[in-house]
Amino acid sequence: DLLAQQNFYDEVMGFQMVADQGWTKIYQTSLSGFIGLVDERRGMEDYADQKGVKLEWRIKEEIEGANLKSSFFGPEKYQFVFKK
C-alpha cells in the first residue's frame, strides 16, 4: 500500500519527499541518505511476507520533542530501529 507508506514517511518520520514519479517516492533521510518507496504493481519484485525489511538509524544525540521508541513496526511489516 504505497499511500500508507507515503503517509508514514511524511507524517510519522517527517522525511522530505525529494522525488515523486507517481509509482515511486524518494525521501531524503539524511544529508547523504535516501530511501525509495515503490508501488509493487509496477516495481520489479512482488510483495512477499517472508521478505521483511528492517531499517535502522543511528542517532548521535537526543532529538528534542521526538516521541520515538527504540523500535516499532510501520506499514507493510517494516521494522524500524533507533540506536544511539
List the helices and strands and how they pair.
Layout: H1 2-12, E1 16-20, E2 24-28, E3 34-38, E4 54-58, E5 71-73, E6 79-83
Parallel strand pairs: 4-6
Antiparallel strand pairs: 1-2, 2-3, 5-6
Keywords:
three-stranded mixed β-sheet, 84 residues, mainly beta, single chain
Structure, briefly:
This protein has 84 residues and is mostly beta strands. The chain is 13% helix and 33% strand. It contains one helix and six strands.
Report, as a whole number of angstroms, the end-to-end distance.
31 Å
> With helices defined by DSSP (H or I, 4 residues minimum), what is the helix count?
1
Q: Please give the largest β-sheet.
A: 3 strands, antiparallel
Strand order of the largest sheet: 1-2-3
What string, H for helix and E for strand, traces the elements in order? HEEEEEE
Give me the count of strands. 6
Structural class: mainly beta
- DSSP strand (E) fraction? 25-35%
What is the 3D shape? globular
Instruction: Determine the fraction of residues in helical runs and give it as a percent range.
Output: 10-25%
How many domain units? 1
Question: What is the mean pLDDT?
Answer: 72
Structure description:
The protein is mainly beta. The protein is 13% helix and 33% strand. It has 1 helix and 6 strands. The protein has one helix spanning 2-12; strands at residues 16-20, 24-28, 34-38, 54-58, 71-73, 79-83. The strands form 2 sheets. A 3-stranded antiparallel beta sheet has the order 1-2-3, with helices on one face. A hairpin with a 3-residue loop joins β1 and β2. It starts with a helix and ends with a strand.
